[in-house]
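Subject: sequence -> structure tokens, single chain

Hey, anyone have a minute? Need the predicted structure for the following. Not urgent.
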Amino acid sequence: MNQVHSIFKYLNFGLFILLTFLFIFENNIVVESWKVLLGRVHPLFLHLPIGIFTLLFIVQIFRKKLQFENSDKVVTFLADICATTACVSAVSGLILAAEDKNVASEALTWHKYVGGAFALLTYLFSLYFSKINDVFQSLILAIGIILLIVTGHNGATMTHGEDFLKFKIDNDAVVTNAINVDSSIYRNVIHPILESKCIGCHNTSKQKGNLLMIDSISLFKGGESGTALIAGQAANSLLFKRMLLPESHEEHMPPIGKAQLTFSEVQLIEAWINNGASYQHQLDDISSDSTFYTLVKSLYDEREVLNKIYPFKAVSPKVVSKLNTPYRKVYPLYHNSPALAAVYLLSSEFKSESLNELSTIKDQIVEINLNKMPLDDKSTILFQQFKNLEKLYLNTTKITNDGIKNLTKLNNLHSLSIANTKVDKGIEKYLGEIKSLKNIFLTNTDIDPTTIEQWRQKYPKINIVYEDYSKIITQLSPPIMENIESVVENDTKIELKHYIKNVVIKYTLDGTEPDSISSPSYEKPFKINKFVNIKAKAFKDKWISSDSKDFIVYTAGFKPKEIQLTSKVNDKYKGEGAATLTNGKLGLLSNLVNPNWLGYSEEPFKAKIEFDEPKPISTLILSYGYNILSYVFPPTYVKLMGGDDPGNLKQIAMLKLPIFDQNNKEQTKNDKIILELEGKPMKYYEIHAQNLQSLPQWHPGKGTKAWFFIDEIFFY
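Reply:
Had a minute. Here:
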């Protein structure tokens, strides 16, 4: 035992000299790559001296009373190990602190120096234990316990925030219950999210990355990595970009191990930034038809819902999960709520029969959002199965007065949104029949302002939301396209419209900007038989003309007899195999795992195409997507071979693409590559698209391979 004590004696002496050296020259420490590892073992080692010293304290208290054999040797051994682990923990902690010299706080200062004092105390105790009496031994250990508590408290403050030891309720409940209609949206919604997930590491006590997030000035100022927030540009704001990085990425925020932002919280942060990142706006200050308004209003409405007791039980999360698809989301109204909401996401994939798929949760559904879906009057009878339905969003659908008639049997419906529909004043006979109705939204319908005012007098218990655009001199909204599919059959008719009467729609088919003089006016639906980039703009006397709106439409074109994938598609993103490329459906970049994408990373995209007979292809289009934050980039080149002998194809086209520019404002986009050919008939073709082999230095994944995602190929 004496030999072991001697070994520890020399080891601890060396560690203590190193610790003293580091304290003296702390400001000159340069953390090289190999030292980073030493610093990051600090969280591993710091628990060892805590446990060993606590055990040592207990043994010291009871060893005389219990009078167990060799108690002095046990105490000496524990003191030696405690001193070693305390010194190692302190050394690694100083190296860890030196990684980011901008992180300077009172908590860090106390943590370092009190932790150093604890290491010194344990070292001296291990040296002189046998030379001091029992009372003095116990006094030293009591002081050590105090130092340990102070060190641990300041460490927890840096890691988890100043309010870590306070009793807190669930974060989601905090966000909801704190809502005050007289306060700003930032104070009600955004700040509670930042406070629970971000400010713990970016406050006056712990300023990681030299970034403060306690107020608007510090947040816009940013930190050592640059500006954290760019109003109106979520995609270019570091605050948002780092939320989207994979959780395993070292720059992902919040860091791994911390409470992560929920999907709805990320949506709110994105919408808040894109809406101007205002710290003063209240709910009434933002447009009621914006995504931001919809997200925030739902939180405000939850205040009323939170205390409501529903007459039904919650269903299993597994049941809810099975009902979620790339085109429909089902989710609880708020944390632990038995009430469920359903929202449909892609109009081209919508079928009214899918409402019957919700029959397993028909009692729990209290909200359905079908905005912009091709829902007709006949389908509205399907809502009658949802007897607890409270909110129904049918804006920009195909319903008329007849569809409203089917809703009169919904005894709990208190909010109905039917803006931008073909209902007219004939719906009045149904207003009184929906007994629970409190809110109805009627903007952009064929109901005149005079009738609206009469109804407001006649039905004072119903809040009728209506905007009379005829009296407002403002900018027109862009035209819309009635065709809901982006890929249509050959010779399909394209139909444009605008919800405001007497608007003139000007358009072009080649992507050029339409003007009020030379561009053709839209008068009736027109046919297309090839890819078109429709650009449309709305004009009206005494109104500001609308922004132009792009509509990318592909016709089916020539259909190959067979497509064969000749390189390996990633197992996670294999879609429907080769059929993905000709199924007439474009992929959603917000959902890369949906069956309309093929994803390539390990190998370039390669495919062989065969037609029944030689086809005179004059234009070939590859439809692909990029999502820069998700490592999905455009290809570096596309090569096309062709011929009538599948074993002897010759190169007929080659297109090189520039590397994506980090200053490009569009970080996420469905895009296309167009190859113009001579139109010589050929039966066989082969396409190669090379993914980027090394992400650029400015990208978080620098040096790794990029992904290439393709959804369709068109032959004209």
